[in-house]
């Protein structure tokens, strides 16, 4: 980042209308080896002193502390802050935005979601006059790479994950990615901006991809679907009529005709639905040093222009304050794979269980799997999540069902 600021100083100055002066770079160690040679006098271990003397602070250290305290210190002094820290924004975005608003400063974090893809600014500014109804996206490139390898090349989850790790897509501890925590943080940020309401990370329903098997991938392909880890945020009405928002992360079936189905390897894409604008899709690199730097530099130019032109920062918009509804209120559809006894009457019993919970089958496929057993793959019509989940529980408890092999939700329209 510092190298790009120094190397592109003249070009950035032309866009901003003034020269950028890099005051310093706060580091943990002055003697650590660095990939890019930079003037030694720029480095300091006194982050607080550096922050207090700056007009614009770029935070790329990650984590909650000391990043939170340093950003609050910067904002308290009237400095604008640019950050790529998704964990911090997801956990303390409201607090930091309020601190910026109190002094007329600007908090910018485009790089916190989907790296180089411009999605937060379009939601905050370009669609500010529209009514966004749904945001659905692939916002974790690591899990998309794994699922894509399984789908396109028939690799097992273990082999695909090992390759992703070897290529640097996964950290040494891949839990943040494969269990959906990273995507949940990004979903929090997307939903908060799209629906002008505070969405705590704890309110996001989350499932990862560790239970997705090659058998499920193959069955999905056979049925015309692909499995993607999706972050979904939408406006909806609860069963009691309450307007609210739902935010969730889970692996789901997407029709192969849907634009998100064509997002391969480590790419990201966010699909937005709005009343006036209709359907919009934002696609590109969701991770990487240069890609993240692009988004950070964009925010830096925006902040610097404000200092040149004058005026307060644009305040955050959380005026709606919709309640975050539990996942049981979501309208979705299931694909359920069952191992059942291969005998007369079983299909009728399964159909009766669905009907008892107000769920209807859109498709049923039966194959004999072994002696005395059959595999049923049932696709349901859209129903409320709570009713679908209760249906699966009832199937699991029925004597005719040996095993509920898998349950996947279906999202998106072809």
TrEMBL record:
Q: What is the lineage of its organism?
A: Bacteria, Bacillati, Actinomycetota, Actinomycetes, Micrococcales
Q: Give any single GO term for biological process.
A: threonine biosynthetic process
InterPro entries named in the record: ACT-like_dom_sf, ACT_dom, Asp/hSer_DH_NAD-bd, HDH, HDH_cat, NAD(P)-bd_dom_sf
Show where the ACT domain sits: 335-409
User: What's the name of the protein?
Assistant: Homoserine dehydrogenase
The answer to whether the entry has keyword Amino-acid biosynthesis is: yes
Question: Can you tell me which residues bind NADPH?
Answer: 86
* Cofactor list: a metal cation
Q: Which UniProt keywords apply?
A: Amino-acid biosynthesis, Methionine biosynthesis, NADP, Oxidoreductase, Sodium, Threonine biosynthesis
Domain of life the protein comes from: Bacteria
Report the leader peptide range.
none
Entry-linked SUPFAM superfamilies: ACT-like, Glyceraldehyde-3-phosphate dehydrogenase-like, C-terminal domain, NAD(P)-binding Rossmann-fold domains
Q: What does this protein do?
A: Catalyzes the conversion of L-aspartate-beta-semialdehyde (L-Asa) to L-homoserine (L-Hse), the third step in the biosynthesis of threonine and methionine from aspartate.
Q: What is its EC number?
A: 1.1.1.3
Catalytic center at which residues? 186 (proton donor)
Q: Where are the transmembrane segments?
A: none
State the organism named in the record. Leucobacter aridicollis
Q: Which family does it belong to?
A: Belongs to the homoserine dehydrogenase family.
Which reactions appear under catalytic activity for this entry?
L-homoserine + NADP(+) = L-aspartate 4-semialdehyde + NADPH + H(+); L-homoserine + NAD(+) = L-aspartate 4-semialdehyde + NADH + H(+)
């Amino acid at each position: 980042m510092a190298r790009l600021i120094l190397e592109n100083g003249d070009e950035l100055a032309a866009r901003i209308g003034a020269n950028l002066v890099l005051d310093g770079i706060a580091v943990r160690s002055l003697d650590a080896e660095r990939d890019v040679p930079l003037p030694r006098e720029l480095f300091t271990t006194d982050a607080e002193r550096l922050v207090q003397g700056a007009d614009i602070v770029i935070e790329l250290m990650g984590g909650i502390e000391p990043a939170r305290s340093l950003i609050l210190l910067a904002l308290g002094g009237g400095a604008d802050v640019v950050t790529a820290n998704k964990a911090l924004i997801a956990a303390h975005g409201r607090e930091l935005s309020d601190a910026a608003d109190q002094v007329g400063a600007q908090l910018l974090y485009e790089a916190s979601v989907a790296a180089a893809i411009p999605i937060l600014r379009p939601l905050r500014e370009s669609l500010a006059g529209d009514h966004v109804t749904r945001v659905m996206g692939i916002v974790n490139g690591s899990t998309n790479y794994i699922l894509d390898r399984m789908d396109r090349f028939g690799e097992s989850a273990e082999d695909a994950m090992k390759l992703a790790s070897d290529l640097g897509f996964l950290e040494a501890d891949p839990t943040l990615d494969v269990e959906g925590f990273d995507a949940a943080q990004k979903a929090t940020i997307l939903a908060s901006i799209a629906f002008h309401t505070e969405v705590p990370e704890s309110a996001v329903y989350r499932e990862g991809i560790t239970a997705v098997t090659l058998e499920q991938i193959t069955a999905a392909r056979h049925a015309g679907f692909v499995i993607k880890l999706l972050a979904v945020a939408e406006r909806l009405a609860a069963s009691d009529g309450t307007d609210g928002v739902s935010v969730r992360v889970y692996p789901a079936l997407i029709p192969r005709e849907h634009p998100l189905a064509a997002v391969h390897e480590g790419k990201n894409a966010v699909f937005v639905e709005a009343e006036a604008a209709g359907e919009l899709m934002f696609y590109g690199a969701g991770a990487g040093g240069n890609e993240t730097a692009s988004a950070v530099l964009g925010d830096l130019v925006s902040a610097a222009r404000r200092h040149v032109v004058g005026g307060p920062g644009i305040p955050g918009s959380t005026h709606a304050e919709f309640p975050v509804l539990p996942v049981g209120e979501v309208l979705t559809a299931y694909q359920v794979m069952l191992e059942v006894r291969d005998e007369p009457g079983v299909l009728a019993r399964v159909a009766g269980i669905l009907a008892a919970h107000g769920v209807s089958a859109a498709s049923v496929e039966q194959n004999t799997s072994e002696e005395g057993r059959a595999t049923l793959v049932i696709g349901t019509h859209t129903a409320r999540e709570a009713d679908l989940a209760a249906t699966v529980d009832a199937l699991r408890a029925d004597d005719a069902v040996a095993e509920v092999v898998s349950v996947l939700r279906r999202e998106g329209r072809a």
